[in-house]
Design brief:
137 residues; alpha/beta; Rossmann fold; five-stranded parallel beta sheet; 42% helix
Amino acid sequence: MSFKVMVVDDAAMMRLYISSFLTSLPDFKMVAQAANGQEALDKLSEIPDLDLILLDIEMPVMDGLEFLRHAKLKTRAKICMLSSVTVSGSPLAAKARQLGADGVVAKPSGTVSHDLEEKTGDELTRVMRALMTNKAA
């Protein structure tokens, strides 16, 4: 069984990197992607059995924090922030947690992290699997 993942990030290259990373994990499958929070909200009704959302914070139209405010009312999927501005101890990471983010992982090198798998892959995998273990419990 694969957990269904939606990737929400305004950078097309970042969505591509995350998609490529997910293909290396047999227990996760990207089933949707969105370029901003509003687009992601619109897609939530199309995927009622979504398991996990990987969410950037800084996006046009609707940012990740605003998406969190709405999404927690519309989905049971776990939400993991994946953003360059959510480094440990940052005010935005704390705000994301306060709004209901289930996990927070910092992108390693800015908006488009071409080294995502190399620098953050193990941590992201660990967080994603922990969230899915807790979901199943």
